[in-house]
Amino acid sequence: MATETKEYTYADVAAHDTKESIYVVIDEKVYDVSAFVDEHPGGEEVMLDVAGQDGTEAFEDVGHSDEAREILSKYLIGNLKRSESDPKPVTISRAAASSSGDSSSGGLPGIVYAVLVAAVAAGGYYYLQLQQQQASA
Hints:
Elements: E1 7-8, H1 10-14, E2 17-18, E3 21-26, E4 29-32, H2 44-50, E5 53-54, H3 56-62, H4 66-73, E6 76-80, H5 92-100, H6 110-136
Parallel strand pairs: 1-6, 3-5
Antiparallel strand pairs: 2-3, 3-4, 4-6
Region (Disordered): 82-107
Pfam family, one: Cyt-b5
GO biological process, one term: sterol biosynthetic process
């Protein structure tokens, strides 16, 4: 017998947009990443930028590793039941613009964006290496 998967509406997800309760949609799946917010290598602000939203584009634009995707899978709570009126996925530029408070800037300049992505990737790699060392010790 197959396990029934819970379905969430976009309104259900949108109600969880605080540090204490973060739901995010990635590829039509709903994740409760509240317990991971303090451990996220990119910092809590990155996650809060997409809290309660569809973060698929932001997640993919960063280029998360297979290990990051494996970690994400632990927080899966169900599928998104999307309607035509639901907002589209958040892009990196919109998330960055909203976090800086300047939505008229249209996002970060190219070099800042590149440095930010590299820093997040390096932080993620370092974090995962530490986790593997601790697990094997």
